[in-house]
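sry for the spam today, last one i promise. struct tokens for design, 126 residues
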């Protein structure tokens, strides 16, 4: 598959936000079937949405935490908690975002979001 401009830009942004080691491991672990998904998410999410000029990465990170919690995607929320920190979101800002999430998504979602973020923040970072 020919690499598009969106894929190239998306890969750069994805590595910047999630960390090159994490992204490269995801790509290396993908066979031909899963690379279809990798291309789609890299082009659409990272090359298009995350690379737009209207919001900074910090704001996009906070929004993403809320969206993932609202959708009940707590494993992903843990991954994006570390990305939020790398994007300049403080632990106190994450806690405040999680309070909003708890109020608007309900206490079960809020609890799971707090647990996922807490585990991610306790884990050693590279």
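last one done:
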């Amino acid at each position: 598959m020919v690499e598009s401009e969106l894929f190239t830009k998306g890969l750069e942004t994805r590595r910047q936000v999630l960390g090159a080691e994490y992204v490269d491991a995801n790509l290396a672990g993908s066979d031909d079937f899963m690379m279809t998904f990798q291309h789609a998410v890299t082009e659409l999410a990272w090359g298009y949405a995350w690379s737009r000029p209207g919001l900074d990465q910090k704001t996009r990170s906070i929004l993403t935490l809320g969206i993932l919690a609202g959708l009940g995607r707590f494993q992903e929320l843990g991954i994006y908690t570390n990305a939020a920190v790398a994007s300049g979101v403080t632990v106190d800002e994450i806690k405040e975002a999680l309070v909003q999430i708890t109020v608007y998504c309900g206490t079960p979602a809020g609890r799971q979001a707090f647990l996922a973020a807490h585990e991610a923040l306790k884990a050693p970072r590279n």
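The radius of gyration is 15 Å. ok im logging off now
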